[in-house]
Amino acid sequence: MIELGNTIPDAPLTVVTQGGQETLPAAELFAGKKVVLFAVPGAFTPTCSAHHLPGYVVLADDIKAKGVDLIACLSVNDAFVMRAWGEQQNADAITMLADGGGAFTKAIGLEMETGDFGGLRSQRYAMVIEDGVIKQLYIEAPKQFEVSKAEAVLAAL
């Protein structure tokens, strides 16, 4: 599993924007930036839609005021789902990242198998990345939502 001080792997992520999508190596996407990356088990799922993503939407300006260049939400979903979810949540200030096959999630060791619920998913976490290096890492215990929420990350910045 990835740890503090590790470099982000070069696994592909699909960046979802209003204009379309582009697949880039994660290391390239995060290079030269201070990034808050948070991951959810699934787009449109209850806690993710009611609390996790909305918290970052509401606090985006406060987080960016702490010197953050990019706030990104990642899920092991396809790019079309991530775009629709971002639009539904008015997440214009958040970069929605699709990890469709879970390559990035597996590369950092934060995958979980949910069986019939959805198969391979990401654990819930947040991390602060500076120029591709993990400076802060907050991994939720199973069925918890405390350390990765926007309020907790903002307080730690």
Please tag this protein with its features:
157 residues, alpha+beta, seven-stranded mixed β-sheet, 29% helix
Radius of gyration (Å):
14 Å
The overall pLDDT average reads 95
Measured between the Cα atoms of the first and last residue, the distance is 23 Å
Shape: globular
CATH topology: the name is Glutaredoxin
Strand-pairing-aware structural class? alpha+beta
- Strand fraction: 25-35%
Number of domains: 1
SSE string, helices as H and strands as E = EEHEHEHEHEEEEH
CATH architecture: 3-Layer(aba) Sandwich
Family: Belongs to the peroxiredoxin family. Prx5 subfamily.
Active site: 48 (cysteine sulfenic acid (-soh) intermediate)
GO molecular function: thioredoxin peroxidase activity
Domain Thioredoxin: 2-157
Briefly characterize the structure.
It catalyses: a hydroperoxide + 2 glutathione = an alcohol + glutathione disulfide + H2O. Strand 6 and strand 7 (120-122) form a beta hairpin.
